[in-house]
Amino acid sequence: MSVDAATVRRIAHLARIAVKEDEVSHLQGELNAMLAFVEQLSEVNIDGVDPMTSVMPMEMKKRADVVSDGEIPDKVLANAPATEDHFFLVPKVVE
């Protein structure tokens, strides 16, 4: 796959990057070099290679997925202008 000058201008427009007309040919070469490298990567045999999050094998830190009130509902509601039964009261905005 290769990128032409019109595609470079479109990419620059979508990325909101100001590109002068004399820079288009240089950027075209840069983008084509990147795409050629990506095409090279698709030729690598990755059969049997597991996805990884890091080059070092490690277990992701996880917290328990439990619902709680944070054990500080009074502190959370301390600055609220209006509360009722540990809930925020808000003015009605929809009829």
Automatic annotation (TrEMBL):
Matching Pfam families: GatC
Enzyme Commission number(s) of this protein: 6.3.5.-
Full protein name: Aspartyl/glutamyl-tRNA(Asn/Gln) amidotransferase subunit C
Gene name in the database record: gatC
The family this protein is said to belong to: Belongs to the GatC family.
Function noted in UniProt: Allows the formation of correctly charged Asn-tRNA(Asn) or Gln-tRNA(Gln) through the transamidation of misacylated Asp-tRNA(Asn) or Glu-tRNA(Gln) in organisms which lack either or both of asparaginyl-tRNA or glutaminyl-tRNA synthetases. The reaction takes place in the presence of glutamine and ATP through an activated phospho-Asp-tRNA(Asn) or phospho-Glu-tRNA(Gln).
Biological process terms in GO annotation: glutaminyl-tRNAGln biosynthesis via transamidation; regulation of translational fidelity; translation
Listed InterPro entries: Asp/Glu-ADT_sf_sub_c, GatC
GO molecular-function terms, A-Z: ATP binding; glutaminyl-tRNA synthase (glutamine-hydrolyzing) activity; transferase activity
Gene3D superfamilies attached to this UniProt entry: Glu-tRNAGln amidotransferase C subunit, N-terminal domain (1.10.20.60)
The protein's enzyme class: ligase
Subunit organization: Heterotrimer of A, B and C subunits.
Key words of the record: ATP-binding, Ligase, Nucleotide-binding, Protein biosynthesis
Keyword Translocase: no
Domain of life, per lineage: Bacteria
Catalysed conversion reaction: L-aspartyl-tRNA(Asn) + L-glutamine + ATP + H2O = L-asparaginyl-tRNA(Asn) + L-glutamate + ADP + phosphate + 2 H(+); L-glutamyl-tRNA(Gln) + L-glutamine + ATP + H2O = L-glutaminyl-tRNA(Gln) + L-glutamate + ADP + phosphate + H(+)
